[in-house]
Records
---
Amino acid sequence: MKPGPILTGGCLCGRVRYRAEATPVDVQFCHCRLCQRAQGAAFAIWFSVPAAALEIVQGEPTWFSSSPFARRGFCGDCGSPLFFVYDANDMPGVSIASLDDPAAVEPQSHWGIESLQPWLAFADNLPHRCTDDDPEFRAATAVGTG
């Protein structure tokens, strides 16, 4: 398999830097309430890559368990959100806003639209999905609830 593009990024203060060599998948605007609160914004924009393709090249992110099924990596100094990882998944999400070149990755969908703010409108015609419609999300949130 041919390696994907090399994407680099990091936090606002530069303490944490990463490199990913993979073709981004599941590139999405996330409107869920957890992302809104974690980002301090109306939405987050994430892409996923295989965990083996993501390398922290400088510093270490601080991790916060934001729910019973996922954790978020951020810079412990400046607070920049960097990563989102489902515990039951090997495809970490990376914040597009933390890329050195955010234009290198183009969103493909909107997710968590049940929390889309009514004053926010997009003219992009991308697919919209609710969290309940996503089998991966349902599987991740079912972990440990048995």
---
Amino acid sequence: MSQSLANIVVHLVFSTKNRLPMIRDDIRDELHVYLCGILKAYDCTPLSANSEPEHVHLLFVLSKNMHSLRW
């Protein structure tokens, strides 16, 4: 019987428009929870979320069921 194993860890970094410092300290935790919720909805396992005022870092395990993503 065949078996497929996958463990793809992605470090995603993205910034605000024009790298303006828009991520305030008072919304930072809520933003991380929101972004991790999106990852979970796509069956990806979030490992870490962090941000600065002008950019975000997400570390997650890509779902093995993720064949193509249409936005």
---
Amino acid sequence: MTTATTAINDTATELIADIDRLLAGGMARLRFSTKLEDRFLSDTAPGRSKRYTLLGLIAIVLYNIFNITDRLMLPDVYQEAWVIRMAIVTPMMVLAIGLARLPRMARYLDLLAMILILLSCISLMVIFSLSRHANAIHYVTGIVLSFMFISIVVRMRFWYTLVSAVVIFVSAVPAVMSLTGSPLEIQINSLVELGAAMIISLIANYQMEYEARREYLRTLRETLRASALSVANAELSRLAAVDTLTGLASRRSFDQQMALAWEQARQLNRPLSLIYIDVDHFKRYNDHYGHPTGDQCLIQIGQAIRTGLQRNGDLAARYGGEEFVVLLRECGPDDALIVARRIRQAMTSQAIPHADSPTAAIVTLSLGIAGGLPGEFKSSIDLFEAADHALYQAKADGRNRVVIAGRAAGPVIKPAPSPPSTN
């Protein structure tokens, strides 16, 4: 596997292990590991932003509907109440909702939501604290509704909801107890009702976030598993398409590309050429130097073939053992001859010693070429067989040469001299 593939799989494995641990019971604090928590917030931010924006707008409407009842419930301070609602709190709510739409504010969505609930509840406390009317105590119900809305409907994250509950309740105690128009028992009962509603809302909020996090983990685990499997399959496909020794295309990949290239050439009536390459006396090389050295020789042959190719569309493959093929699109036999000679020259330049070769003192190649317009051949198999026959002719004529199908053998490139003996 490649380094990148290994890194991806390692990351996925690490996250899946973390997820399994959390699903087994490690979420009581509603907090993941740093890496997973950052991913959770990032993945859920778009959905939470849309939800917070929509429900925030609904909250503004609901908040301002009570402008109607302010006139009826608190006739002594309703004008002040309208100013607080429409001139102070509503613009600040609109600003907070606008900020929630900004991508850079994704990490602060719950902070903005907490600001909204605090604005709403504290503004209600200010309004009923200004009044001396007996109805002022009923505005505690508005605080209850606001808190239930943010914790159960909006579903602000638990720890932000808990902090909001503490701040609101601590602020509500002196505000409620200062109401001179209400008996003490009603004030105490209102605070108890507020506290009870907050506890119920917090329990519901905790359970909803707990289940939401578990569902996120289950979904993420399946996504990671599917992604890791996809990466592994892609890597297997890549390995199947590449000869692992030489780095050239595999025979399977060549056969697939050959079929595609032939069909394209046939449809467009464009030339296509094939070079069939064989390493001269390679069995003797293996027997004399050993298979590990033979493998190294094949690697160098692959490098020589790549050196001879100069176009991105050209395909070189190891066809089997010491046989190689080169597929040249948009290329006739004469141009293929130029490529073949470059490959032979690159091979000759490497001057790999071959002490047991009857052809030369170094490793050499025999190459057969077939090419032309598709109409000159019955099929891609016919083209391949023509290149094979040309290769056979090159070997029959003494090896270490290039032969084009239907033509005489090309000139032999004189090999480089053997390396001096170190004895």
---
Amino acid sequence: WLGLRCASRVVARTRATLPQGDVRVTSRDANVAGAFRLRRAGAVRGRPVLLVDDVFTSGSTMRECARVLRAGGAGAVVGLTACDARG
């Protein structure tokens, strides 16, 4: 209809992390640093990406995934979340 492609599972988690809202997480950025990798660079190389996540807590997960996508050659990366946990 709009000519958009959906490429799911392009970013994969490389290690388990605590939930971002967990009280044991002292740095949300550190909690997710290096926790993702690009599985299919060809799916994003040179293309704009809409990164979708369920909950926005601090933005750390979204920023880390966007960093991985941009490092893999993605064009503009825009984030969209369904819920904002900051209240």
